[in-house]
Amino acid sequence: MKSQLKRIAKDIDYPLLIVYVFLLLFGLVMVYSSSMDKAISNDKPYDFYYNRQRMSMLVAFFAFTVASIIPYRHYVKPAFIKVGIVIVAIMYVQLKFSGAGADIGGQRWIKFLGIIQFQPSEFLKFFIVLTLASVLGAREQRLGRLELSHVIGALVPVVIGAGLIISEPDIGTAAIYLAISYCIFLSVRWKPKDFKRLALGTISVIGAGAVFLLLGGGQLLLSGNREGRLNSFLDPFMYAQGEGMQVVQSYLAFATGGLTGQGIGQSVQKLGYLPEPHTDFIIAIIAEELGLVGIFIVLGGLGYLVLHALMLANRATNPKERFLAVGVASWIGLQTFVNVGGATGIIPLTGVTLPLLSFGGVSLLMVSASLGIVMNISIKQKMERRRRKELAEQQS
């Protein structure tokens, strides 16, 4: 038993584990710092959000550990994916027809047991990675290189999932979901002619979308608070007393923080100026309290997770490994870009969380489970390399 534990300990990807745990703890500290005024203004104890996040972190770490131990091949089995699809379908039925949904920021959230609120799209991002890895991986294993006709069926769950997320309505998360799917499709071993067709198709879709917007079709998408978000993106200072307030206050947080920040707990913007300092705008509070140094630490940690997963994908001998690693890397990378891009005015606000750092139990759980799968892939690859080395030494 002791020798088996030593063998497992030898194969753990410690850099990945250390960065993951560091970001969890760093996020917990920043949630505590950024949420105290928010909790008091909502007639809750000052550490209400901190305690909720701490419990969520423990559950998320447990999920990470379990996903690290169980071989990844079990997650891409059709039976597991079917169970996931049924669970997500039940969530959306509840959201649309049972009255279990709550309106928050113009979007529909599921309210569970009166205390847990979440969007089913968090589960959809997780299961689309598993679904595409299962379907595309099995076909690539069987055929070697794929043609476009081989993947038409895989587009069905992608389109259905995007439609469900848009119905929440959540255009930003739908865009991330589609981008994750597209990144997985890009990592397929295509036949050269089909890769060219995919590239031409992508350019055509982007061109058609641009023409649609130029001809005024964008007005169809600007319902609810989306027009306000677009206005705040185009000229936040003109709408500083309304839709642009969050972006302007975020700018002030970044400017005030400077290089090293005002110190932990010293943020002014969290005192009612930024409506969601512990969720959508936690990066702004990090910038104000820890400055550019804090931003580099956060983005460096998240960037490491993305690049590390991509390196594992590049070394993968099994296509399912490759698709899983690419899917998780693109998920974390794209969601980070969208969150930070919205807070800095690079892109319109979308309301998505910063992975592993923002307050939100279900988001933390899903990202942690996906990183656990990446850890399992890394352990498997290290075991394979060690076995090859031992075999080579025996033969020599």
UniProtKB/TrEMBL annotation:
EC number(s) recorded for this UniProt protein: 2.4.99.28
Keywords noted in UniProt: Cell shape, Glycosyltransferase, Membrane, Peptidoglycan synthesis, Transferase, Transmembrane, Transmembrane helix
Membrane-crossing residue ranges in chain numbering: 12-35, 55-72, 79-95, 115-136, 148-165, 171-188, 200-222, 281-311, 323-347, 359-379
Enzyme class, broadest EC rank: transferase
Principal place of residence: membrane
The UniProt record lists the keyword Metal-binding: no
Tagged with keyword tRNA processing: no
Mode of membrane association: Multi-pass membrane protein
Subcellular location: Membrane
GO MF term (any one): peptidoglycan glycosyltransferase activity
Domain of life assignment: Bacteria
Reactions catalysed, as given in the entry: [GlcNAc-(1->4)-Mur2Ac(oyl-L-Ala-gamma-D-Glu-L-Lys-D-Ala-D-Ala)](n)-di-trans,octa-cis-undecaprenyl diphosphate + beta-D-GlcNAc-(1->4)-Mur2Ac(oyl-L-Ala-gamma-D-Glu-L-Lys-D-Ala-D-Ala)-di-trans,octa-cis-undecaprenyl diphosphate = [GlcNAc-(1->4)-Mur2Ac(oyl-L-Ala-gamma-D-Glu-L-Lys-D-Ala-D-Ala)](n+1)-di-trans,octa-cis-undecaprenyl diphosphate + di-trans,octa-cis-undecaprenyl diphosphate + H(+)
Biological process per Gene Ontology, one example term: regulation of cell shape
GO cellular component, one term: plasma membrane
InterPro entries cross-referenced by the UniProt entry: FtsW/RodA (IPR001182)
Pfam family, one: FTSW_RODA_SPOVE
General function of this protein: Peptidoglycan polymerase that is essential for cell division.
Protein family per UniProt: Belongs to the SEDS family. FtsW subfamily.
Protein name: Probable peptidoglycan glycosyltransferase FtsW
